[in-house]
From TrEMBL:
Database matches in Gene3D superfamilies: 1.10.10.160, HRDC domain, P-loop containing nucleotide triphosphate hydrolases, PCRA, domain 4
All residue ranges annotated as the UvrD-like helicase C-terminal domain in the record: 304-554
Residue ranges constituting the UvrD-like helicase ATP-binding domain according to the UniProt record: 23-303
GO CC aspect terms: cytosol; DNA helicase complex
Reactions that this protein is recorded to catalyse: ATP + H2O = ADP + phosphate + H(+); Couples ATP hydrolysis with the unwinding of duplex DNA by translocating in the 3'-5' direction
Protein name: DNA 3'-5' helicase
Species this chain originates from: Geodermatophilus amargosae
Amino acid sequence: MPRTADAPPGSPGTSAGAEAVLAGLDEEQRTAASEVTGPVCILAGAGTGKTRTITHRIAYGVHTGAFVPEQVLAVTFTARAAGELRTRLAALGVGGVQARTFHAAAMRQLRYFAPRVLGGPLPPLVENKLRVVASAATRNRLTTDRTSLRDLASEIEWAKTTLATPEDYPARAAAAGREPPFDAETVARVYASYESAKQRDGALDFEDLLLVTAFALEEHPDVARQVRGQYRHFVVDEYQDVNPLQQRLLDAWLGGRADVCVVGDPNQTIYSFTGADPDHLLGFADRYPDAAVVKLERDYRSTPQVVALANKLIGQAPPRRGLPGLRLLGQRPEGPAPRFFEHPDEPTEAAAVAQACRALVEAGMPASEIAVLFRINAQSQVYESALADAGVPYVLKGGERFFERPEVREAVVLLRGAAAGGSDPGALVPTVRDVLASTGWVEHRPPAGGAARDRWQSLAALVDLAVDLVAEDPTTDLPRFVAHLAERADAQHAPTVQGVTLASMHAAKGLEWDAVFVVGLVDGVLPIAQSLSRPEAVEEERRLLYVAVTRAREQLTLSWSLVRNPGAKRARPRSRFLDGLVPGSTPTAPPPQRKAKKTKVVLEGEAAEIFERLRAWRSSTAQAASVPAYVVFSDATLQAIAESKPTSVRELSGLPGVGARKLEMYAEDVLATVSG
């Protein structure tokens, strides 16, 4: 962006503005933010300021003229994260950048191009996947309950995100060590019926949004030219969680270009069960040998004591291939040492945690700054009861979304109606209190517990939000408050509800609290029993505990109980991950790591010769086009070509991985290479 003669200092396009963006960053953050030409890989450890770094990188690119804001697409995994990016960029004086989830970005593009790609408007989205799965299961004469239907839906989602078709699902599931709710062949039949039902209804699911958008870019050159002309710079947050379907869409957006910045933490790879593939992050430098790799290791979230425990925990994991490891460096003042407690049974453990939470609240710590984290949701019930008995308010994360709660919807409607009549600046908080009082809500008089207490806390959170907004801007009035609520609802950015957070370790990712209790740490729960037969799955469980530990800013307590119920005889061993962490214990020696076997293409005779000729042709073609080899054709596609020995464009077009665009570009060369 050229600098204008009358541009004020610090405005976009000025050198002063660019330097101002970098001010306040630490050395590593500054290095990462200054790398505005891709490919760039930012390895950002827990609490190291990754969101700050990538927003300042985008702003720096805009201020230096390297980026045009409207040509930047930043993709995230949650609407809340996308909203946070937009808010921070606005604070840096940068507007126009598209910050969206993968699905939101795909929907926006597909809605525009649907008439051209699909011959009509964007089809309706499947609103209730369980209903369609249930219908597919019934057609296959399966008896299911709600739990098995959810498991079937999750298995179909895994298959689609890993690009597995119904035909190859059984083999892919076996290779991945999946444990489906029914035998793999049955799941494959339900999957096929599910796809048929969607096609019959003319509908798409959320995975289809990504798949069809990628197809549109891969097979429609005019669409690809328009999208790639619009978006020239890409940022991908939480890259360790990208699945093959998302990577395919990213590749389609890039179109062989390399102006991409990915941000991730290999130590926080905890979603492989949903299809996430950390190899995309771990292999980034292999894929882009000229990539700039920057490590962020200064932890501004946790005390040195918490950081030391986290480093010790993850340091006992076997080394992983690819990118360099991360070792956090605590930047906060000293704090208390993490505490470890063994209890005779789960109710006793829960009661001890509840009393500790009560003591913290009575000492002045807000209940919202305390969390109890567990491996599986079924563990929450005993802690809900214990906290209720101790008179400590709590919030169960992962339950109903805040803005979808009946009392919140009612309150927003009433506030919107009041705003239509106008509002005096400076009277926001009293006005909000008056409106909520009309629903029966009484400030400073929370009910004793149960659903009534939850309802009171939800409405209290709206008042607290109004107080916070007025503190930031005393002129905020009711119409602006209502507009702010609408923005938060769109981004699923719930206000803070005053209560101890109960959450699974997965749900806690991306969050932080002053005090964290990590509970139920026994073998068979963490690591979960299903993972024990696969070393790589056990290591993912270790990373899950690492995520839980690094949620704590100041106080960290880890606990376990010997039996589930009082009076039970058989003792459970504490989690193996605590060996070497609990004072006086020694680390468990990791099992010997077998070298990973590289997947080989096994061909014989003429097919093997054709395959090698195709590889040589692909290499020279990719080099001439300055793109990675896989952009031309994957090994799997070359194998299919070598095995089938096509002699015509028609025969070639029927092979997997050979679309219309690639036929247009490569058919003549491929057929000539096959024929020798």
